[in-house]
Amino acid sequence: MSGEASCDDLARLVPPDELDELLSAISRPLACKLAIFDVRDARLAGATEGEAVRRPLVHEGERLGTLAASGARAGDALDLAAETLGLLIHHARARDLAATTHEEAMRVTFGELTEHNQRLQRAVARLEELDRLKSNFLATMSHELRTPLTSVIGYAEMMCEGLAGPISQDQREYLTTILGKADQLLGLITAVLDVASLESGQLAVERAALSLSEVVASEVASFVPQAGRRGIAIQLDARGDTVVFGDRRKIRQIISNLLSNAVKFTPDRGRVGVVVRPGPLAPGEGDGEEAGPPAIQLVVSDSGIGISRDQVAKIFEPFFQVDSSSTRAFGGTGLGLTLAKAYVEAHGGHIWVDTSPGQGSTFTATFPTALDRAGSEVSSS
Ligand SMILES: Nc1ncnc2c1ncn2[C@@H]1O[C@H](COP(=O)(O)OP(=O)(O)OP(=O)(O)O)[C@@H](O)[C@H]1O
Ligand SMILES: [Mg+2]
Fold first, then answer.
1. In 109-137, which positions are buried (b, 16+ CB within 10 angstroms) versus exposed (e)?
2. What is the residue with the minimal CA distance to atom 19 of ligand 1?
3. Over the stretch 207-236, which tens digit does the pLDDT of each residue have?
């Protein structure tokens, strides 16, 4: 391609000060004068005097301007200038090309990112909508499931009490099974709902002073018969003042979830121990001067199957159960510890476990003491 219309602007490709430097570097040793003009014959660099020889400056068949030289060695100066300029222009074009390619690549990437972003935004909006629908669905379902279940339990209890007429021993047994299963179902519905409210950040905790050891004692008592049937002894040890400031229903649930696991994952004739005592709030805190705020600890230990190190990190996740056969062997939904952890943390406490396979497990849940809570409230107001 040649001709003015398609010419690169020489001044754009090589800055004027570079052109000046080049000309003086060539002309000085050759004792001549050199100048460069663009295609419109405007002077770009250098200055000629007297009779100057002119030569078109052509690069890859394209005219980019004119070179002019005067002096005895004007021809040499033109050769040298044309050659050096050729190199400079070649370089500048390569740089231009790289920049354009880069710019194009950036433009494509930016376009792709924008599109990706829009897709993500649409997906997030869709997920939020689904999440809202899920919450509505759960709330509706809980009502729809609970109402008939309450009737089933109510009528079964009435029949059990003989209010619908005398019943045989067999009938009483069947009704007791119905009541047990209905209770289990109610517990499950409540757990699923609690997890849903956790996920939407709507977990409400009521606060009242209560004796942790009293609540623990009544929960332990309710587990004794079922543990006893498998030859598992539950030992309770409550020491000192164990008053905490918390939500009775949720605290009962924490104890019951930890106890049910301890009994469930302990082989027949094993041992389960429950200790309630004052102690540090967080794991690893000593009782010394550096100890954190005082707390009440609930420690549930068992001589059961234990948990391997890599599974321990996951057991507090919703629906996680250590191995897939555990659903068949032990039942449950994998929500117990998720709820226990959420409830403990909602009270400002911590929960952790010390365990290893075959060596049993010790779960510790802590609750800030009522005293500490009252104290901090007074000092912060
Ligand atoms: N004391 C324990 N000993 C051994 N493994 C345990 C113990 N407690 C929990 N696990 C493991 O952690 C898993 C999760 O416990 P989690 O209480 O959350 O669920 P689950 O007991 O299986 O079901 P759910 O409590 O909902 O009825 C259990 O399935 C079990 O694999
Ligand atoms: Mg459980």
1. eeeeeeeeeeeeeeeeeeeeeeeeeeeee
2. 334
3. 999 999 999 999 999 999 999 999 999 999
